[in-house]
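Per reviewer request, we include the raw input and output of the structure prediction for the construct analysed in the revised manuscript.
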Amino acid sequence: MSRKIARKAIGTVDVLIIGAGHSGLAMSRLLTERCIDHVILERGEVANSWKTERWDSLKLLTPNWQSRLPGFAYSGPDMDGYMRMSEVIDFIQDYADFTRAPVMSGTTVTSVQPLERGYRVMTNRGEWRTRALVIASGAFNRPLVPAVGDALPGDIKQLTLHDYRNPEHLAEGGVLVVGSSASGLQLAAEIHASGRPVTLAVGEHVRMPRVYRGKDIQYWMHVTGLLDECYDQVDDIKRARGVPSPQLIGSKERRTLDLNALSAEGVRLCGRLAGVRDGRIQFSGGLRNVCKLADLKMNRMLDTIDGWISATGSGECTEPARRYAPTRVDSTPRLGLDLSGGEISTVLWATGYRPDYSWLEVPVLDRKGRIRHDGGIADAPGMVVMGLPYLRRRKSSFIHGAEDDARDLSQHLARFLDLTTGNSLIRMAV
């Protein structure tokens, strides 16, 4: 079982980890391997966000064989399947128990303040002093709702990905889903299948087939090294970190879910939501160009995969190379929607998230409230961050991406501690 610390927390520790999700637990494991004293503070329970902030039907976008953390991997019977939410929770909890992670549950961090050597961390259960800090609270703390939402009529119900659980909890009537990354597509499909008319506002997106040449697309991303591409190999890392999640869905049939599949089912596609005026939603007229760009990028990725197969003489392909039909867009996409007609009763914002660092009283935040960092090494002594998109590698935000990042950053912390104390570690006060 994981080591749950029940006493009142007033102590000193070498490293304090904030967040007991998969990233924080991966870091804990590697700090333990280096015999570095540490504690994990968690506002809820292990895997808290999976337990409290996800919709009912959610499945991982990655196949089960990719679900692994340092010293631990999926061992169930369905290696090519995709874990349901309850299975993800069990997987992360089992990992915490396997590693005997020093988790202090029910401990909310209220402030982090810099000291001359380290940090003061205030919580609802007391104060901690730490020489180094790992922020593993995640990138998905607050749903991002555009300011245009304030202009929607009061009788239109607005939901975020934190609020939505299943179609049964929606009001009667049509639904406008805003956002076309993995979450937006999955929920548009689910809500439409419930019998409600669905309109999807489409912005920038990443199109991918679920299966290519007989293998899951994640297999090709893995063997070609695309998932291991490092942050310092990218021309524009700020843009790369803002790219939406790929349009994938985990299903037994390994179904490809893209805009063509949705429109064939009857979901209406519109451009990006551009504004609301006098009770009328305005959509961008750039839908065709956005879709062409996504198709182009997908084909470039498939070219890379085909090139790798040819160069390596891989004999694992069961199907020949192919290209997919371009995204179908109406010749005259809809540019407006009158909300007074009753066509839409709910707007579901699938527009992404932003982290919440309101408790962080250390000058490391940029003007958008994000931590300034170089591959996870924050702009403050002894502070690192885990679990952000493209933190150190393209795979950083996936469960299996945490191990390599944690290995690199735990090494950085070990060097920091050695340099600041001559290799002597402070033990937690009892």
